[in-house]
Amino acid sequence: MRAVCIFCGSSPGFRPVYAEAAARTGRILAEQGLAMVFGGSKVGLMGAAADAALAAGGEVFGVLPRALARKELEHEGLTRLEIVETMHQRKARMAELSDAFIALPGGAGTLEEVFEIWTWGQLAIHAKPAAFLNVDGYYDPLRRFLDHSVEEGFVRETHRDMLVFGEDPAQLLEHLAGYVAPAQEKWLERFQL
Question: 44 Cβ partners below 8 Å, 6+ apart?
């Protein structure tokens, strides 16, 4: 692994524990010699993670849509900031630059980003791992929902197991480094995908 993408909120949340976890994650990435890829913003958890990675001497690459740059949300101290035209281009470029993905607490955008990456993995578009940093139980309801989706027959257990939940960023990185993508399954042939 050379670069890890961080998906997280442009808001800091209501409790300091979220920004602390984002900063710790950024710092650990830098300490392990891993570049951080993220959405390029200076605000919320995104800014906290980027600032900590940079302060620890890490490389930080941001990808920001032009519409958000016009609102002056871009982080100006990054190793590199790429401005793209659309959110779709942003996600594709972040995926291209990254070897693994970690979702920190966030809202709809964070979930949309990590679920798209997970879907691409299920379809064997890539073989990169994804994880949730479960800060203070933030993702417990989501973990229960995903297990429920398996129980109800909408998600295969093999695919559910592609997503890892953990409380410690260093342990998550260790797991992500050892990730092996599941073998392509026959069900894709049945649906002609």
Answer: 8, 9, 10, 11, 12
Segment 61-67 long-range contacts (CB within 8 Å, at least 24 positions apart): 61/3, 61/35, 61/36, 61/37, 61/97, 62/37, 62/38, 63/37, 63/38, 63/39, 63/90, 63/93, 63/94, 63/97, 64/39, 64/40, 64/90, 65/89, 65/90
- Catalogue the E-assigned strands of 30-187: 35-38, 60-65, 80-84, 100-103, 130-133, 163-166
157-192: pLDDT as tens digits:
999 999 999 999 999 999 999 999 888 765 555 454
The amino acid that residue 85 corresponds to is E
Is residue 106 within 8 Å of 7, Cβ to Cβ? yes
- Total-model pTM: 0.92
